[in-house]
Amino acid sequence: MNNTPTDCCADPGQKLLSVEQGRKRILAAVPVIAAAEQLHLRAALHRILCEPVVSRLDVPPFANSAMDGYAVRSQDCPDSQPVVLKIVGSSFAGAPFAGQVGTGQCVRIMTGALLPEGADAVLMQEQVSRDAEQIRFEKRIVKSGQNVRYAGEDTRCGDTVLHAGHRLGAAELGLLASVGVAEVRVTRRLRVAFFSTGDELASIGTPLGSGQIYDSNRYALFGMLSRPEIECYDLGVIPDRRDAVRTAFQEASALADLVLTSGGVSVGEADYVTETLGELGEINFWRMAMKPGKPLAFGQLGKAVFFGLPGNPVSVMATFYQFVLPAIRKMTGEHAREPLLIQARSTHTLKKAPGRMEFQRGILEPGTDGQWHVSATGVQGSHVLSSMSKANCFILLPADGAGATEGDLVTVQPFLDFCW
Ligand code: AMP
Ligand code: MG
After folding, report:
1. Alpha helices, DSSP H, located in 212-354
2. Strand, helix or coil at 79?
3. 264 C-alpha to center of ligand 1: Å?
4. Please, is 399 exposed, middle or buried when counting C-beta atoms within 10 Å of its C-beta (0-12, 13-18, 19+)?
5. Number of C-alpha atoms within 13 angstroms, CB side, residue 376?
């Protein structure tokens, strides 16, 4: 990074940076937070593992039954004639049969119970008739290993069950518990400070003055940042004054690994964000070929990574999901992943001017033809925040295209992709 806006930046007439190029640059520039902490499994839900976990045991730890039934020796069960076996005991989950199964014998066994020594198969109880202390079944093929779950079938001792960079979801918590792990090392929570800029912004709970609007960006940002791997600091609304923006920048960068602002990144007379970033830090670029969200400042502010997001609420959300979230994922040590993109049929014409990649708000639904169908939410202005609430996906329209007509296949990114 350098101190002046680079290539695509300062001059509004210059070439815009593509979304793909922007994301690549951001990911190349942001660091991984090296610090880690040791947490109990429950506290580690949705955190990012920072070292591999190797199993010290086989799971399951012993051969056991997959059914309620009878543990038998397959060599005692010829398939040509009826078989009668004597029941010599029982094996319950957690209360194994202590002895051995001998010739002509069997053991009553429950699901998950240890397979007794000598036995090599389990017969389902529905397949036999029981008569006091013996069972009987007609010519039935009993195969060695039938209904047996062998030791290590899930995980073997020495296996790496999870790699560094893995996000710990519900399955991972269960998996770690299954190998007896009580605590894990995860990357420490990422500190994110954010504030809004704008003299027109009123806080909720106060009446609106003439020309004022409520500050919605801080609430949408709070919502998007409320993730277990993030510790967020809301620094409020900063007026459009050079000194106030400057002070807020200094406070935020002293506090956080990542600083986010909204508004004031355009070329208006009261837009001090990019200018202040240039003075106190380093600007990487600030004009993107995307709609919504063309003005976007990115750079370094002291030790913190900085994103100056646009002011319009839909632009804030679109740029957060397309650029900030991938940066957060990298900074918290999560391994890289491809965006979740699917193809859907457009139910109507989607108008678009060539030049910028568009992220229209869409409603994705299964059609009666077995395919996914998508429709736009209506008015697509970057100030129409209700479009984000109605939508369940972005419709991605390539920069050089002219939109789509009814029935065309378009690429869609479900909002689900941003959940974790
Ligand atoms: P700006 O980039 O500061 O000129 O802002 C662009 C547009 O976004 C203007 O219409 C602003 O009023 C609006 N805006 C800026 N910040 C916010 C905010 N925090 N909440 C809602 N709208 C905002
Ligand atoms: Mg403003």
Report:
1. 217-225, 242-255, 273-280, 313-319, 325-331
2. coil
3. 8
4. middle
5. 21
- Which tokens go with 142? 């009993």
Nearest to 308 by CA among 328, 292, 324: 324
Ligand 1, atom 14, residue with closest C-alpha: 311
Q: Ligand 1 pocket, 315 CB below 6 A? A: no
H or E, element range at 105: strand 105-109
Q: Which distant-in-sequence residues (6+ apart) come within 8 Å of 206 by Cβ?
A: none
At CA 212, angle to CA 209 and CA 217, rounded to 5? Answer: 135
Contact partners, residue 264, CB within 8 Å, separation at least 6: 197, 198, 240, 245, 270, 271, 272, 273, 274, 308, 311
pLDDT single digits (tens) 63-121? 999 999 999 999 999 888 899 999 999 999 999 999 999 999 999 999 999 999 999 99
pTM over 0.85: yes
Residues 6+ apart with CB under 8 A from 259: 192, 193, 194, 249, 252, 253, 301, 304, 305, 306, 307
What number does the ligand 1 atom closest to the CA of 266 have?
Answer: 2
Structure tokens at 49: 């593992």
